[in-house]
Amino acid sequence: MIRLRRNPRANGGRARQKGAMGYVLAWLLGVPVPILIIVALLRGCS
Predict the structure, then answer these.
(1) Is the separation of the CB atoms in 30 and 43 below 8 Å?
(2) What is the dihedral of CA 31, 33, 39, 41, to 10 degrees?
(3) d(CA 29, CA 17)
(4) Predicted model pTM
(5) Which three-class secondary structure state does DSSP give residue 43?
């Protein structure tokens, strides 16, 4: 039988969307974009 591999990115999609929504929410609340970029770079953009 052929063993099917799971796509490692399949589960990361939902978490990535939640992270992006967090940045959008922070931006809407008034956090400046350069601060958001610095935070994203410090987190490693994973």
Answers:
(1) no
(2) 170
(3) 18
(4) 0.57
(5) helix
Whose tokens are 């399949």? That residue is 10
Distance CA 38, CA 46 (A): 14
Mean of pLDDT over the chain: 78
- Output the DSSP codes for 1-46: -PPPPPPTTTTHHHHHHHHHHHHHHHHHTT--HHHHHHHHHHHT--
User: Over the stretch 3-45, which tens digit does the pLDDT of each residue have?
Assistant: 666 665 555 667 666 778 888 999 999 999 999 999 988 887 5
Which residue type, as a one-letter code, is found at position 32? P
Tokens of 26: 């922070």
Give backbone dihedrals phi and psi of 29, rounded to 5 degrees, phi first: -80, -5
